[in-house]
Amino acid sequence: MATLFHYPFCPHSRFVRLVLAEMGMEPTLVEERPWERRRDFLVMNPAGTVPVFVEEQGLVVPGPQVVAEYLDETRGLGLDSRRLLPENPAARVEVRRLLDWFHIKFFDDVSNYLVVEKIYKRFMGSEAGGGPPDMSAIRAARANVRYHLRYVGFLAAKRNWLAGADLTYADLAAAAHLSCADYLGDVPWDEDEQAKAWYARIKSRPSFRSLLADRVAGMAPAAHYADLDF
């Protein structure tokens, strides 16, 4: 059986968990706290980041986009109409563009600030940078998320799913990052009905159930977090 090294509130890890669930795969999940920089994990992935997908035969595949490309290359054709990276070259470009948008831009603007300041620092030792949250970073993330929410709403208003007619990696990446912010109550859903309707659709998919069950010790989620009709 394959193994996924992940951290429950790492948005990149959440993306890969959604991808695997949509593909009908149930790997062994191993929680990895990347800030601990375990020697055995660094041997596997010198970057020290999650997620890392490990095939049963031992092939190590690190990073959200590398994992997504690998899974499409090895399992995508068998998914037929449920393939998460389209066959059409132009459509593939759009999906990859949006993957960059959420995994890089949204992460840098919003989700990395929020999960590090509000979650990771609670469990990190002082030598690793743990301690009280930086409120200026949190305020920046809360301001930035409004811009990104409007963009999600703009895409959702024009298309059936964010990248086009069908569910793709783009939707799963956006949902993974937004779900972390949503747990913390930092997504102003009332500011964009199109974005909210899109998120309600994807949040209702079976692949999302395990994410909605995640909890941070000592920190309850926003009241609407697991509510499918929020």
Describe, in plain words, how this protein is organized in 3D.
- The structure is a single chain.
- This protein folds into 2 domains: 3-79, Glutaredoxin (3-Layer(aba) Sandwich), CATH 3.40.30; 89-206, Glutathione S-transferase Yfyf (Class Pi), Chain A, domain 2.
- It has helices spanning 11-22, 39-44, 64-75, 89-123, 135-158, 169-183, 193-203, 209-213; strands spanning 3-6, 28-31, 52-54, 60-62.
- Strand 1, helix 1 (11-22) and strand 2 (28-31) form a beta-alpha-beta unit.
- Helix 5 crosses helix 7.
- It is globular.
- It is of the alpha+beta class.
In short:
This protein has 230 residues and is of the alpha+beta class. The protein has helices at residues 11-22, 39-44, 64-75, 89-123, 135-158, 169-183, 193-203, 209-213; strands at 3-6, 28-31, 52-54, 60-62. The protein has 2 domains: 3-79, Glutaredoxin, CATH 3.40.30.10; 89-206, Glutathione S-transferase Yfyf (Class Pi), Chain A, domain 2.
Helix and strand arrangement:
Blueprint: E1 3-6, H1 11-22, E2 28-31, H2 39-44, E3 52-54, E4 60-62, H3 64-75, H4 89-123, H5 135-158, H6 169-183, H7 193-203, H8 209-213
Parallel strand pairs: 1-2
Antiparallel strand pairs: 1-3, 3-4
What overall form do the CA principal axes indicate?
Answer: globular
Question: Which radius of gyration do the C-alpha atoms yield?
Answer: 17 Å
Mean pLDDT: 97
Strand order of the largest sheet: 2-1-3-4
Give helix % range. 40-55%
Number of domains: 2
